[in-house]
Design brief:
There is one protein chain. The chain has about 130 residues and is an alpha+beta fold. It has one domain (about 10-125): Pantoate--beta-alanine Ligase, Chain: A,domain 2 (2-Layer Sandwich), CATH 3.30.1300. The protein has helices spanning about 10-60, 125; strands at about 75-85, 90-95, 110, 115-120. A 4-stranded antiparallel β-sheet has the order 1-2-3-4, with helices on one face. Strand 1 (about 75-85) and strand 2 (about 90-95) form a beta hairpin. It is rod-shaped and about 90 Å long.
């Protein structure tokens, strides 16, 4: 018998198929974890924004004129404030930035002055306890 050097075509094809299957399983799981991490960053931004709003109201007795400057090193969401006419209620809205931060499960996340948490699609999966 001769000494075999290298791989046969069948061995190479089996190796390629195994790599493709593993990549097909791993990549969606990776994308899901990235989305969850971005969403957690938005939760932090909204919570910090709520603290700023409450701090401003404690100084001014109203939410009118209060703004937020949410900090995030990742910069995946834009946070805006909506204040009612009487200055007694606010809602913070975190909107995903750009096409690379698409969150089809939740979309925009919200937090208001009553502590109510929401999203475009539902609170349960977008705001875990």
């Amino acid at each position: 018998m001769k000494n075999q050097k290298g791989l046969t075509l069948i061995e190479l094809m089996i190796t390629v198929v195994i790599i493709i299957v593993l990549a097909g399983i791993a990549f969606p799981a990776y994308q899901n974890q990235v989305t969850k991490a971005r969403r957690a960053d938005a939760h932090t931004m909204l919570s910090n924004g709520a603290l700023e709003m409450e701090r401003c109201r404690s100084l001014n007795a109203t939410f009118t004129g209060c703004t937020v400057t949410p900090n995030s090193e990742f910069d995946n969401y834009t946070v805006t404030v909506s204040i009612n006419g009487g200055g007694t209620y606010y809602q913070l809205i975190a909107t995903p930035k750009g096409p690379q931060v698409v969150d089809t499960e939740c979309g925009k996340l919200t937090l208001d002055s009553r502590g109510s948490k929401g999203s475009d699609t539902g609170v349960e999966k977008c705001w875990p306890d």
